[in-house]
Amino acid sequence: MARSGLTRREAPDLAARGRDDRAMARLRAHAEPLPEIDSAAFGALFDRYGDARVVLIGEATHGTSDFYRARAEITRRLIERHGFSIVAIEADWPDAAAIDRYVRQRPAPLPLEAAFTRFPMWMWRNEEVAEFVAWLQSWNAARASELRVELRGLDVYSLRTSVDAVLRYLDSVDTEAAKAARERYGCLTPWQADPALYGRAVLLGEDPCEDEVVGQLKALLQRRLEAAAGDGEALFDAERNARVVRAAEQYYRLMYRSSAESWNLRDRHMFETLQALLARRGPGAKAVVWAHNSHVGNADATAPGWSGETNIGALSRRAWGRDAVLIGQGTDRGTVAAAHDWDGPVEIMTVLPSRPDSWEQAFLRAGVEASLTDWRDPARTALRLALSEPRLERAIGVVYRPQSERMSHYFEAVLAEQFDAWLWFAETRAVQPLGEEPGAGIPETYPFGL
């Protein structure tokens, strides 16, 4: 006699496929096809975020042209139409300061330092960023100095260059204070060429330099309280560099003890720098943040967050609620600029097609080649439900290892809670790294030049 009905194993499989099909249908229904990135229609799609205090725009890789170009066009629109005045990027403070001096036409130390010359150079030294920087310089040139848009770095890795910047500032204003700073920072001198060795030395019993770097920061904060108004910009820069030195000293000590603690310290420092930039600009200031998806998406909705990590996105969500807009970007396949190992040469690598159990595959199956999907609208309950189950999400940094991609580059995430919107490009191409000479039309003094 023939058996009727489904086995216990088949029934849940069919139920899961049914949920998956409904989710794909909702994604397809809500995906807004993207026009060409360089068209006015592309930027207009993002006017909906113009009232936000902070718009954080992520990227699934550090080496994909489409992500950089899309982010630049969104930022241009927010600056032109909605008064955003700060662009804060996942980069070292001193390197971004060189770009900021260029775009705001502020005096630079002599000789003009080249920006982004350490690994991974291509992350910011690429044609896509150079094009945006050239536009920003032109935009600012037509405006009064106090209305110009600033470009700032948020990261903690610049131990040596931040120490140099503090000393250079003090040399110019107070030789005795500079002498005292050299004595304090002398504790770090043996490690400045390779700060990671400092953390290892402390782990093995070397006395830490924490008291010295904290003492120097306090001295600069006291100077800020006493400074004349005309010293504000230079002193602010020196103070932020002193904070970078303090954070870097802690970061390199923690990196050998706990990856979660060092990650959290880094992202808290980046978030606090963002807060300081907004506070300095005034109560109406608005900022755009450029960083990896893993930094700008809400960590509370991801496997790293479930294990104790936080990030800029989670901290922004707690601080500003709906006034912080979190936008992720993703792709299925294409090429990417990355290295096989840390400190390795940049290569143009092939991005493997996404896994069948990933968010990337879900957007691919939705069938729209390039789209914006937004679920901030409270009326989009069905869409949020479709994005509320954990799936894998891919993250490629400056290192890409296709041979171990599942372990190296995927983590679980609940997209509905991680982001407010998702930019999707089914196929993407790598950024174009800059060579040693500035590009066509870029003046010799341009800070990317070597």
How would you describe the overall organization of this protein?
- The protein is of the alpha/beta class.
- The model has no long low-confidence stretch (mean pLDDT 90).
- The chain is built from 18 helices and 11 strands.
- Helices cover 46% and strands 14% of the residues.
- A hairpin with an 8-residue loop joins strand 6 and strand 7.
- The longest helix has 23 residues, at 232-254.
- The termini are far apart.
- It is globular.
Top keywords for this entry?
450 residues; alpha/beta; nine-stranded mixed beta sheet; two-stranded antiparallel sheet; 46% helix; 14% strand
How large is the radius of gyration?
23 Å
Low-confidence stretches: none
Largest sheet: 9 strands, mixed
Strand tally is 11
Order of helices and strands: HEHEHEHHEHHHHHHEHHHEEHEHEHEHE
Large-scale geometry: globular
Helix share of residues? 40-55%
Number of helices: 18
Overall average pLDDT = 90
Strand content: 5-15%
End-to-end separation: 82 Å
Label the structural class.
alpha/beta
